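User: Here's a structure from my thesis project, written as structure tokens. My advisor, Dr. K., wants to see whether a designed sequence matches the one we expressed. Can you design one independently, without my sequence as a hint?
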């Protein structure tokens, strides 16, 4: 039988940090710190596998009770106390700890082992009866809530009433007698709610707590967190049973949470908060607004100096920013946890950059440290300074960015309203892990209480959400769904704006401007003026050195092309020519072409469109000088360009000199039952070859003009929606004929290639035939997903989320590529195409081109490039580097 329980204590542990999958993150790091000689209270860890076995079988694993008993005896020896001993009681904490950090999502119980007899022993042992009964009431409250199912609010009501009758503002001011009475009231509450006495047997308490931690793996908040963060359900959580150390023994004791660097900005400065005469849950739950960690130097100077040295040692050992929990018991420091700290994207980028400069990590490690999706955060907008708005309140800047939304006061309401497309901001007195689904749905979070290490702050930072916490000026009234501040009232549904970088709260929906990174890249700010941009640029430079995949952008205008280049795009992978036709006079000329009665009429209208198209291509070629530009010929069905009634139809009829009825008949004649599979793409070019001819001429004329201005031009002409090689041959002949005419007449030579978009299963399956005539394939995975799965992207949103929730689809196939279906077609087409044409260039230009997991697939499938929207180019660059490093390329 494999070992299920691992002991740590007295400078030696059964495990190390390498056993994270077995011991969970918390257990593995407690073992590691013990082996390092860091002051850690002794304890033992029950392996994660026991959780999964218990949840599957509904019973404790065989042999576990004996292992726990043996390790409990070791713990008694290491601590010099007895579990249940009324004269010298050993008290323990029981805490969760999954292999992947899930802060606040599962349960913790402190002070376990207290009962009516051991509380007397604790009072005598400590010489502080008030402390003993404070610990006892905390234990009954935690155990009653987590294990016995007594609502936490019921305990809080009794506690608030006790403060009121005692005439005090905080729990720390309650007297010993008040706490003794509160303990009795808590026990009566448990009896009244559950019908049973509060358990006095420490062994019963221990197993009740262990099983509650296991069950908390399946709490809604934990399940939601795993779903959002892509954490496997099969990991389970470890259970850590650790000897209690007490931060609530008086003014020489305390507890806190700290980071070895600032988790919001990445600045290399010890950062955190602590409370005097408190236990750990008081800090992370936001029950009391804590003190800045620097104040600890004045309150607990000796422990503070030891903490400074220990945090530096831990960061050097783990070679990453650490999030640590600590307790000081009568001047003596103990560490209760260390883990890799959650951080904002700006902090992640800066920390990775500076740790390279410090020699702690390599450039490759720095690239791996920043998740591609995180880069999206540094592109978030900030409040426009020209708004000149006056803040109604200011709190702690827990997570940067700017966000506006309607105030909501309930996480369920936030989820419901966000599901309808509303922008909402969740406002709470303080958040708890039960609010997680509301935080996911909200644009931002505002709390009246809590510090920079409170639940709201930690979760928001990890998710890249804007957050302002500890905003003391606001009074939150959850019952009436409003908050008041300085005489003003914000009701549910009113607009508010948060500035997560400064902690300011504004009334109304304020305008925003691009972030520093975007402003630098768009030429509106000097890079030297932005610390974030400097680290951002260096990190992406290292990523570019590591990746094999090229990254292009989807861009339809010269302005988009310039933005794409600024973000590092190495060409355009998709220029959609139809978007150019919707502007100004162009749409009129386009409509003239569509309603023309014969080829002559169409050619006259196309002659008006040609210079317009040429002008667009001219600007795009210049913006992308030296880089390839893939131009897709006209793709959508013609009826999309026509009005469907109303004033637009009247105006068009007058402009074209047609009767309204005639125009209506023409529009109806073009309407299709299933336009996605109808008269579009290359089918239009085959029916109306003059359209393909005009577009090809515009491309080549623009290419010559730009070349004559001294720029290198590399046009790639892409034929859409090809199903058979005959269709491609037809269109290629028209394009080549236009090239001969234009380049011959203008006396210039412009290198160009002609390829196709693979967006139909038949095209993928006959890739060898098509590759004999096409120089490149671009996989249009949006349509290829629709035609492979038989799903309409516009309609499937009604049921796709349910498919993902039920595990029918692992992911939304329009967001992350369907590797086993669409992916197989892509791989087959690449293999078959290159069997015929060894130098066949292949890329992807659907929405998947900006999705990190899809980019990993593209790397593995041997594609040459991905193409995505300009603002996702940095994400794609970093994701391509991650893919290369993960595959060992």
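Assistant: Designed independently from the structure alone:
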């Amino acid at each position: 039988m494999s070992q299920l329980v691992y002991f740590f204590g007295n400078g030696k542990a059964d495990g190390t940090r390498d056993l994270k999958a077995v011991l969970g993150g918390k257990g593995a790091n407690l073992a590691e710190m013990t082996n390092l000689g860091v002051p850690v209270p002794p304890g033992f860890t029950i392996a994660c596998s026991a959780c999964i076995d218990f949840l599957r079988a509904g019973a404790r694993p065989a042999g576990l009770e004996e292992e726990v008993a043996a390790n409990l005896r070791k713990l008694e020896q290491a601590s010099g106390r007895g579990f249940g001993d009324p004269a010298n009681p050993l008290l323990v904490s029981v805490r969760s700890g999954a292999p992947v950090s899930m802060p606040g999502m599962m349960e913790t119980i402190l002070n376990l082992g207290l009962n009516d007899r051991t509380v007397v022993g604790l009072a005598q042992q400590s010489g502080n009866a008030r402390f003993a009964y404070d610990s006892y009431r905390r234990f009954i409250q935690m155990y009653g809530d987590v294990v016995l199912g007594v609502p936490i609010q019921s305990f809080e009501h009794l506690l608030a009433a006790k403060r009121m009758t005692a005439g005090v503002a905080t729990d720390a001011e309650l007297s010993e007698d008040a706490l003794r009475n509160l303990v009795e009231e808590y026990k009566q509450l448990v009896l009244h709610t559950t019908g049973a006495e509060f358990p006095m047997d420490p062994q019963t308490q221990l197993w009740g707590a262990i099983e509650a931690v296991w069950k908390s793996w399946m709490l809604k908040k934990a399940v939601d967190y795993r779903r959002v963060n892509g954490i496997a359900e099969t990991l389970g959580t470890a259970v850590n049973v650790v000897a209690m150390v007490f931060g609530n023994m008086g003014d020489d004791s305390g507890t806190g949470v700290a980071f070895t660097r600032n988790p919001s900005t990445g600045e290399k400065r010890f950062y955190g908060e602590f409370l005097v005469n408190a236990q750990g849950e008081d800090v992370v739950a936001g029950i009391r607004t804590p003190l800045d960690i620097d104040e600890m130097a004045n309150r607990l100077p000796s422990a503070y100096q030891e903490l400074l040295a220990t945090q530096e040692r831990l960061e050097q050992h783990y070679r990453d920013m650490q999030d640590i929990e600590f307790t000081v018991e009568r001047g003596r420091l103990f560490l209760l946890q260390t883990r890799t700290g959650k951080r904002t994207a700006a902090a992640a980028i800066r920390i990775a950059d500076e740790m390279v400069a410090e020699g702690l990590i390599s450039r490759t490690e720095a690239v791996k440290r920043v998740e591609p999706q995180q880069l999206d955060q540094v592109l978030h907008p900030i409040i426009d300074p020209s708004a000149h708005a006056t803040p109604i309140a200011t709190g702690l800047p827990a997570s940067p960015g700017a966000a506006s939304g309607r105030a909501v006061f309930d996480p369920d309401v936030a989820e419901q309203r966000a599901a309808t497309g509303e922008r909402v901001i969740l406002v709470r007195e303080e958040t708890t892990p039960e609010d997680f689904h509301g935080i996911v749905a909200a644009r931002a979070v505002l709390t009246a209480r809590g510090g920079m290490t409170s639940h709201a702050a930690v979760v928001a930072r990890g998710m890249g959400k804007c957050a302002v916490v500890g905003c003391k000026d606001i009074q939150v009234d959850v019952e009436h769904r409003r908050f008041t501040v300085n005489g003003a009232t914000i009701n549910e549904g009113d607009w508010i704006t948060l500035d997560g970088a400064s902690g300011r709260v504004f009334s109304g929906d304020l305008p925003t401007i691009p972030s520093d990174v975007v402003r630098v890249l768009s030429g509106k700010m000097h890079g030297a003026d932005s610390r974030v941009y400097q680290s951002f640029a260096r990190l992406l430079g290292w990523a570019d050195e590591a990746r094999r995949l090229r990254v292009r952008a989807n861009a339809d205008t010269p302005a988009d092309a310039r933005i794409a280049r600024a973000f590092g795009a190495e060409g355009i992978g998709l220029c959609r020519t139809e978007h150019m036709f919707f502007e100004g006079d162009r749409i009129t000329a386009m409509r003239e072409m569509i309603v023309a009665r014969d080829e002559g009429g169409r050619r006259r209208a196309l002659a008006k469109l040609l210079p317009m198209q040429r002008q667009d291509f001219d600007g795009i070629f210049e913006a992308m000088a030296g880089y390839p530009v893939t131009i897709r010929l006209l793709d959508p069905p013609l009826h999309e360009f026509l009005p469907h009634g109303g004033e637009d139809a009247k105006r068009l009829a007058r402009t074209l000199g047609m009767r309204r009825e005639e125009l209506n008949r023409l529009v109806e004649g073009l309407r299709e039952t299933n336009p996605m599979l109808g008269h579009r793409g290359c089918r239009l070019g085959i029916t109306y070859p003059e359209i393909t001819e005009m577009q090809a001429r515009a491309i080549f004329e623009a290419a010559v003009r730009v070349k004559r201005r001294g720029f290198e031009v590399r046009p790639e002409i892409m034929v859409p929606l090809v199903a058979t090689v005959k269709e491609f041959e037809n269109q290629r002949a028209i394009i080549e004929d236009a090239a001969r005419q234009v380049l011959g007449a203008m006396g210039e030579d412009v290198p160009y290639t002609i390829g196709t978009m693979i967006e139909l299963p038949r095209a993928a399956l006959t890739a060898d035939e098509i590759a004999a005539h096409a120089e490149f394939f671009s996989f249009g995975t949006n349509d290829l997903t629709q035609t492979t799965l038989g799903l309409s992207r516009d309609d499937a949103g009604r049921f796709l989320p349910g498919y993902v929730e039920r595990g029918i689809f692992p992911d939304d196939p329009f967001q992350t590529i369907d590797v086993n279906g669409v992916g197989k077609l892509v791989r087959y087409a690449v293999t078959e195409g290159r069997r015929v044409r060894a130098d066949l260039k292949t890329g992807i230009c659907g929405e998947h081109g900006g999705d990190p997991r899809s980019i990993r697939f593209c790397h593995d499938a041997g594609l040459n490039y991905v193409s995505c929207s300009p603002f996702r180019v940095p994400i794609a660059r970093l994701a391509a580097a991650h893919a290369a490093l993960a595959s060992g390329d």
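When you compare it with your expressed construct, this may help: The mean pLDDT is 91.
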